[in-house]
Amino acid sequence: MPYGYNKDLSKISQTLRKNMTPEEKHLWYDFLKLLPVTVNRQKVIGNYITDFYIHSAKIVIELDGIQHELKEQRTADQKRDEYFDNLGITVLRYTNTVVNKRFKFVCGDILQHLGLSVDDVRR
Questions:
Q1: Distance from first CA to last CA of the chain, Å, rounded?
Q2: Torsion of CA 20, 21, 25, 28, to 10 degrees
Q3: Which residue of 23, 53, 77, 103 is 20 to 30 Å from 29, comparing CA positions?
Q4: The overall pTM is greater than 0.90
Q5: What DSSP letter does each residue of 71-113 carry, written as one string?
């Protein structure tokens, strides 16, 4: 594993893959799965489980629910983002509300970070 791997998290990541949130399902089935790059769901990197990871672009995509508005969670998210930044990985964060209300914006932002266009998405 290029970034380290906590094998204790693998069972948890498998469970999370089977029990994605509605927003994760929407982003996965209606967009990420159609990209011409490999996207991993619930990928373990170090001591963290990412929502989505695109190794070829070194991008983590995180969908944040309401709990991420809590001060303690914001602090934990900042620490996590710094960890990924030190590995040269960009973290893209979107709230569940943004995924639900501005889905095209989220897809466009991800495409921009990947250097892809809408024409590159499989239909």
A1: 32
A2: -70
A3: 77
A4: no
A5: HHHHHHHHHHHHHHHHTT-EEEEEEHHHHHH-HHHHHHHHHHH
Q: How far apart are CA 117 and CA 111, in angstroms?
A: 6
At 32-78, the pLDDT tens digits run 999 999 999 999 998 899 999 999 999 999 998 766 565 676 788 89
Judge whether 46 and 6 are in contact, CB under 8 Å: yes
Q: State whether residue 28 is helix, strand or coil.
A: helix
Instruction: Answer whether 29's CB lies under 8 Å from 103's CB.
Output: no
Closest listed residue to residue 9, CA positions, set 39, 65, 50: 50
Q: How many Å apart are CA 59 and CA 12, to the nearest integer?
A: 21
22 to each of 65, 113, 115, how far by Cα in Å? 11, 23, 27
Distance between CA atoms of 108 and 88, rounded to whole angstroms? 22
CA 90 to CA 66: how far, in whole Å?
A: 22
- Find all residues with CB under 8 Å of 106, minimum gap 6, and list them: 27, 31, 94, 98, 99
